[in-house]
Amino acid sequence: MKKNYKTMKTKCHVLTVTVLTLLVGMAALSSCEHYQEKQLRDTVSDFSTAYFNWQYHKAARFCAPGSERWLAYMSSQVTQRDVDTLRALPEGASVRINSMRFYKGDSVAVADVEARDFLEMDTIGKTGRWVEKARYLISARLVRGVWKVWLSAPLRAEKD
Q1: Which of 93, 97, 123, 152 could form a disulfide with 118 if both were Cys (CB 3.0 to 4.6 A apart)?
Q2: Do residues 104 and 110 lie in contact, with contact meaning Cβ atoms separated by under 8 Å?
């Protein structure tokens, strides 16, 4: 009888340790997912704020390798009239992230971003035009454990 009690006690101890390990692992995974989501949200928000305020050098910090070329292209299209128009604005653009979706094993994401009160670049030679509100889908990739915005072209507003 004593031997069965010791065996049962050992099995209960092993089961308790196993359950506790699983609970700690699930909590750590949940915490990691929360951190990843927050880091993605911060990256997209900081990128968007810089991008829609034509601060392309700041926006580049939040880009995946290869995406900076699109920001360099955008910068090369800025005219003195654009700069003067930007300086005359009473305040800068604002952004809001409406939603975020994760894909491909959570290493690719798309954020639905609303930009407000910004100057949108027009065609070459024309001064940008004022936009009250527009929606953009901004892609991001996990690069060495850090979320980075991934551009395959300059951002274009979504048609509602």
Answers
A1: 93
A2: no
Among all chains, which residue has been given the structure tokens 């993605």? 40
pTM of the shown model:
0.76
**DSSP-derived 3-state class of residue 159:** coil
pLDDT by residue (tens digit) across 8-17? 666 655 555 5
Could you give the CA distance from residue 121 to residue 99 in angstroms, rounded to a whole number? 25
Among 114, 135, 113, 119, which residue's Cα sits nearest to residue 78? 119
Judge whether 121 and 73 are in contact, CB under 8 Å.
Answer: no
The radius of gyration of the chain from alpha carbons, rounded to an integer in Å, stands at: 24
Q: How long is the chain? A: 160
